[in-house]
Amino acid sequence: MAAFQDIREQTEQKVMVHLFSEIERNPSFTQRGLASELGIALGLINQYLKRCITKGWIRASQVSPRRITYFLTPEGFKEKSQMVTDYLSRSMTFFRDSRMQCEELLADCKAQQWSKIALIGAGDLADIAKLVGEGSGIKLEIADINLPLDSYDAVLITDIINPQGTYDVLKTKIAANRLLTLRLLHIYKEQT
């Protein structure tokens, strides 16, 4: 649950930084256009804007009956700066932790003489694993959880959205010693 909460907060912070940046760049943006650009619901953009106005980070000015212009307040600039700093710090920490844990895991795979590892879950963690695997002699491939995985020596969960759910599905398909996880995903493994 903690991993999900962290991801939710990071996503929210990313949306807020994008919102603040868009207001700086184009105060007359449309909520519909911004929602489409971010891939979120129009009502959610509206909620973010209302919250920012309530907190004093944004000021709104009605230009016409159907047009509102938004401005960042000094508090809004300060908040955006803090969010960007937090985001970069968290991103660097995530990268360092991921890299270190992938290096340890790939060293173990090499000791087992495994040469082909399936990555279940596309995204940043899979990219980091592939980067770490460069030149290691171990082939890392993103694979589909629904396809047979017997052509791989092991399977590594790189799904950061629902790592526990992915593990729960895979534990019935893959031998426990060949189902690999990283500590940073906080996957609970029942002891039998």
Break the fold down into its secondary structure elements and pairings.
Blueprint: H1 2-25, H2 31-38, H3 42-55, E1 58-64, E2 67-72, H4 74-111, E3 116-120, H5 124-133, E4 139-142, E5 154-157, H6 163-170, E6 179-180
Helix pairs in contact: 1-4, 2-3, 4-5
Please tag this protein with its features.
single chain, 192 residues, alpha/beta, 4-stranded parallel beta sheet, two-stranded antiparallel sheet, elongated
Characterise this structure.
- The protein is α/β, with parallel strands linked by helices.
- The protein has 6 helices and 6 strands.
- The chain has helices at residues 2-25, 31-38, 42-55, 74-111, 124-133, 163-170, and strands spanning 58-64, 67-72, 116-120, 139-142, 154-157, 179-180.
- α5 links the parallel β3 and β4 (139-142).
- α1 (2-25) packs across α4, α2 packs across α3 and α4 crosses α5 (124-133).
